[in-house]
Amino acid sequence: MVAGMEGAESRTYAAAQDDPVAAILRVLRDGERFLVCSHSRPDGDAIGSMLSLGTLIEQMGKRADLVTADRIPAVYRKLPGADAVQTLLRVDGRYDAAILLECDGVERTRLRGLEQLFLINIDHHVTGQAFAALNWIDHSAVSVGEMVYRLALAAGAKLTPEMATCLYTTLLTDTGGFLYGAVRASTFALARELVAAGANPVAIAHEVYFSVSPSKLLLLGMALRRLKRKGRLAWLWVTHQDMVRSCAAEEDCEGIVNIALGIAGVDVAVFLRELPEGLIRLSLRSRGEVNVAAVAARLGGGGHENAAGCTLDGPLPRALEEILSELRNAADNPTARSG
Ligand code: 5GP
Ligand code: MN
User: Most exposed among 117, 219, 276, 283, judged by the fewest C-beta atoms under 10 Å?
Assistant: First the structure.
């Protein structure tokens, strides 16, 4: 058990922050049972990195319980091992460590019961926080899956076709199909390696992008009718009633904001969704200089420089006014980065 360590042992772990990969592997080798989780409303990176880390831990002869607060979106349910992910709101049990992927704090998991565990944080967001006992935050990683790949490499693990499939999914989805994010030569080198190890890029792309539900298209139509554009800024929204009328799930909102960003001359876009309890979820996207992570962080959210999110108080017109004013400021001062 690593929790509750003191004195020399805690100094060892503090020093280990210089080499977080080695430190994380040491915890995995020393322990027996681990909890692996990610943020609520999990996306492709959250699911793919959880599944591949779970496999790595099992390859090391240990046990990994995979948990999310929200159910896995349909497009990721066929990923190898996805059946084993438990949807819970409270975790129980004795774990040698809990590994949080893609989270800037325990709250982002929406899981209760984590506080007393030894926490390991693996994240790639610019708004990432060193909230855990052991933190590995790498802004240069395209996805957390890329970091799990590096962990697997350092552990000397065998890259199975199943792991390669999950890891490729993290690359594909966190770059919107290799379209944005920190995509560079090494991203394609990793993609190549994953395909060589058994990931099928066409099958994965079809599963993720060509399996749209009719509800999603209905919702998209409703959002597009409300599309507004002023200069470099575009916005669109859906009400809770739209969600009900189109029988849409929250995962059906994924990608709607990118359509607004795709307008020629627009370089900042926002999609707003009214939640049943009246709060408003925001998805922010930019291309070029405007740092939407800084905007989201100011409003209590976070993310990447070009893709971020947050939740605001309603009603919708008020949230819209607030975000448009913030985005206009950010667009007028594009060099004001939060880092
Ligand atoms: P999306 O718009 O797709 O929901 O989120 C875009 C990016 O921002 C993702 O990397 C996501 O993890 C991050 N993000 C979205 N909402 C929040 C939030 O409320 N808090 C933090 N810390 N990150 C968020
Ligand atoms: Mn990610």
Answer: 276
